[in-house]
Write a structure and sequence with these properties.
alpha/beta; Glycerol-3-phosphate (1)-acyltransferase; single chain
Length: 269
């Protein structure tokens, strides 16, 4: 195909424009990651101070956990790339204890989940506990550590989750087990639902959309236009449920989240 001088000039300008845009995106991403890192360091030292002041009377680490609320607000507020819709907060009864189940797309999920202003312990993979400052915050707040592919670790997670539920503390699971790489919900594992039946606590499904684009796995460059949403769905009661109801409860929660994701996807286009 013959390329005329005017066409060459157009394509040259287009390439330069794209390069300029990419450079701005990289600079903005570096700044945002730097601010996130600073805020996480600040969070750790704030927690450390409060830990020393509340050690003898705050065994559940409620005051420490509450610090994550301003941390979440700050990260979301300073990020010009993120636009967030939150729905269904009325479905949260702060006086109740839940097994919370949410779909998992990105590390940004936990930032968004703190917008619920709920007290909970979440089951986090072992590698997160090894990240400086972030992992130290997880230790201080007594979140539950999971080492994948180790049966003893899974049993330990189960026991710790039972202990927290017995002490009126909600526990948050990502029942897919790992982040979705396709945007589609993976098969839900049964552990969270077995626990809810065993302890007779309600299951609180939460649908999160858009975080995979906001903080893509394996990439440092952030998307310049990320529309995020979180929808808290009505609780699924388990007081009268039997072990034989496990599959039904699991599938009901998965279907509710799938439908919410479909609705959110429709409103974002």
């Amino acid at each position: 195909m013959q390329c005329f001088p005017r066409q060459k000039l157009y394509y040259c300008c287009l390439l330069k424009g794209n390069d300029h845009f990419m450079l701005k995106q990289i600079i903005a991403s570096v700044l945002i990651w730097s601010i996130c890192s600073f805020l996480t360091i600040l969070l750790f030292f704030t927690m450390l101070l409060i830990f020393g002041m509340t050690f003898f009377f705050d065994k559940k680490r409620i005051f420490l956990h509450s610090q994550c609320f301003w941390w979440s607000d700050a990260i979301i507020g300073m990020n010009p790339f993120w636009k967030i819709d939150i729905n269904g907060l009325e479905h949260i009864d702060k006086s109740r204890t839940y097994v919370i189940v949410a779909n998992h797309q990105s590390i940004a999920d936990i930032i968004i989940l703190y917008q619920t202003r709920m007290q909970f312990k979440w089951v986090a993979k072992d590698s997160l506990f090894r990240i400086p400052f972030l992992g130290w915050c997880l230790h201080l707040t007594k979140h539950i550590r999971l080492v994948r592919d180790r049966p003893l670790s899974i049993l330990s997670v189960y026991r710790k989750a039972i202990t927290w539920l017995d002490n009126d503390m909600s526990v948050l699971f990502f029942p897919e087990g790992s982040r979705s790489t396709t945007g589609e919900l993976a098969q839900f594992h049964s552990g969270a639902f077995k626990l809810a039946i065993k302890k007779g606590v309600a299951i609180l499904p939460i649908a999160i959309q858009g975080t995979a684009n906001a903080m893509p796995k394996g990439k440092m460059t952030l998307s310049p236009d990320s529309r995020l949403s979180m929808t808290i769905l009505p609780a699924i009661e388990t007081a009268s449920s039997q072990p034989s109801d496990l599959a039904h409860l699991r599938d009901t929660a998965k279907t509710m989240i799938e439908q919410a994701l479909g609705r959110n996807m429709g409103t974002q286009h």
